[in-house]
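User: Show me an example of a complex going from sequences to structure tokens.

Assistant: Sure. Here are the input components:
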Amino acid sequence: MRFSRSVLCRAAAFVAATLIAPASLAADVVNVYSARQEALIKPILDRFTEESGIKVNLITGGGDALLTRLRSEGRNSPADILLTVDAGRLYRAREAGVLQPLHSDFLKKVVPAHLRDSQDYWYGLSVRARVIAYARDRIDPAQLGSYEDLTDPKWRNRLCVRSSSNIYNQSLMAGMIATEGADAAADWAQGLVVNFARPPQGGDRDQIKAVGAGQCDLALVNSYYYGAMLQAGGEEQAAAEKVALFFPNQDGRGTHINVSGAGITKAATNVEQAKALIEFLAGEEAQHWYAETNNEYPVREDIEPSERLRAWGEFKADSVDVTELGRLNAQAVMIMDRANWK
Amino acid sequence: MLLATAIIAVPVLVIVASLFGGFSPVWEHLLQTVLQDYVVNSLLLMLGVGTGTLVLGVTGAWLTAMCDFPGRRFFNWALLLPMAIPAYIIAYTYTGMLDYAGPVQSALRAAFGWGYGDYYFPAIRSLGGAVCMLSLVLYPYVYLLVRVAFREQSTAVLEASRSLGKGPWQTLFQVALPMARPALVAGMSLALMETLADYGTVAYFGVNAFTTGIFRTWYGLGELQTAAQLAAFLLLFVFSLFLLEHLSRRRLRFHHNSARQQPRRIQLRSWRALLACAVAGLILTAGFVLPALQLASWAIERWADTDLALFWQLIRSSFSLAAMAAVACLLIALLLGYGKRLHPGQLEQQSTRIAAMGYAVPGTVIAVGVLIPFAWLDNRIDGFMRSHFDYSTGLLLSGTVTALVFAYVVRFLSVSLQSVESGLARIRPSIDESARSLGLKPMAVLRRVHLPMLRGSLATALLLVFVDVLKELPTTLILRPFNFNTLAVRAHELASDERLADAALPALAIVVIGLLPVILMNRTAGSGEPSA
């Protein structure tokens, strides 16, 4: 094969551009490290760009991996914002010293105090609830009550839960430790494991499918997976329609919730733009979008969730400070290890 | 050569260095509770996948390299196809088909009026299931390398065996296989290293393997240091396996002195031919046809929602990354492999081994091993420039494609090195000696004598790394530049959000692009008999 000179030149330019040119240094940009995957955040970031003219550069990845990258890049990190899908990672980021406080009267006004950092290092942006999914045809919701009730012997071999390696279960357990104490939480874990219908496997959707197919009667799942399945059509939707949601602990501390959230990095060079983006994500349009598209609850109390979410009923959410969930995460994992929750 | 080795070994050494950082109290917790489980499960997984890939790979290689039957030419390349399917993707497809809520079991229940617990059906999401999934996608490593070895064995040796009264089976087990040992070991060690590094499959199946331990410790307990120490022990374990194999074959030689004439194939007729077809067909169906059909049906279901422009962009970036990394790995593997041949000292031997260990470690951990030294270097340069020239260079290499390709080399060098080395091992040293005595310099020997003889092995090395990078996920995820996506990243993100149907199209594209070099290789290897 023979290459013309121009092809060679272009190839050389391409190689040079891809191999060295570091992150974008253009004027009106904001660089985001996001633990929320692209498909679930890009659309709203694009809306932000349309509104503000600020370009958003994005890298997605696991929360801890991004945090490690942020730490090792140090003061030269190109990231302006760290966006995560749970409060625990933001807590760790603050502990690691890679965030800086963001003082915003607007954010402080709209984001409830227990869903943000007490010293303004990060703010919760959307809320998800961990609920009980039950088989419509076999279970009378009057039999259900709290998370604690799930250890009752009547549920022996009837409960499906995914692995305790998953952050949702870890934060549920951390919430339990925060409100009921470590001993009660440990007892609960052991009682729960005894009632498992099968060894933990698959994701939340798989638990809902297992309830739909009759492999178990109850499952602990996140509300938005259920919403996504109802939208999916086909077999997924059929499975989800055999299942209904129950919000536990309504007579007590409320249903466990966790947040996705964001904070500005210490190394940030585009602080103003970063602030604008976080405020945009807490704004009305984005809050509605979280509910409509991702089936998450808005973090703001003054914004109504979508119609689908409202159909599941109002619920009382646990008001424990989500920072605690991050602080107690490691202890939760150890308790689950000891309870042999795979 | 030692310098190249040293640079490539840095990420692995960063991980091993964690052992000197003190042990946290978390270790006590791990030892008391879950660690034993992780170790046992990983060993069982290795045993299972080792057996599985050995049986499938050698069967395939023997049939297509040493026998002749209708359809052989087709199976010759088709048996490579499962390699293009990422392990966690095949796990998703089989779960979709065989799970309790899936179509097969639902149909059974509907047909016979059974309910939950009325009948026995093997659980796909189990240790056994993970062994099956990994064996199905990893056997091509054994197949590919052993097939080359079989083809390069000499007629004379095999015919000597036959004329001494051995049947074809005895010839296989007593002559052909033992002579193919370097290739067999190379293939199996790749399969096993990948098994040890796998996280996606075991996590989805709820099998608590050693990688589960690493990530649970890091993510759940927030102990990166302890997680790195766990990874370091994994490395030490793999290293000692290599050492054992090396010691056990120290005095053995695998080249032969007869004329290089390809062995005549055993003609299979009537029911034997049918059986051969059926066996090869079964492997192909289980490893490729079924999962690909499942992916295709999902992809068609979601075709309307697909953004094609975005999709082409993904294909372009995946393809160029994979091509760059494959070439880089090949060049470095040649350098190291040939360097070892010229200077077969202990230092060269072991340092190459260490440099090539990245394959056994989960990609995310290797990525951290790359991240830390790169960022350190960048920040040092920046600090120097700031203090001396009042100019900030920022991060020069971190977060660029260079860092990414370097990480791929660290992670996949083992793959290219294994094929290059097992190829070199089959070339008699006397050839080098004759060439040298005829006045050729070492590099000229490589270029004019070895490279032509190695063509099959080199093509194999390129292909394997290309497909591996195409499938690669965790390293890409954490080291990539802004706004840079690949097919694997896309497929994984959707799958991890449990949107399997949406993940199908990018997954299918990985498979299709992985096919290209397979076909290309068959073409370039000559119209008659592909030598690889």
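The lines above are the inputs; the final block is the predicted structure for all two components together. Chain B touches chain A through 69 residues (CB under 8 Å).
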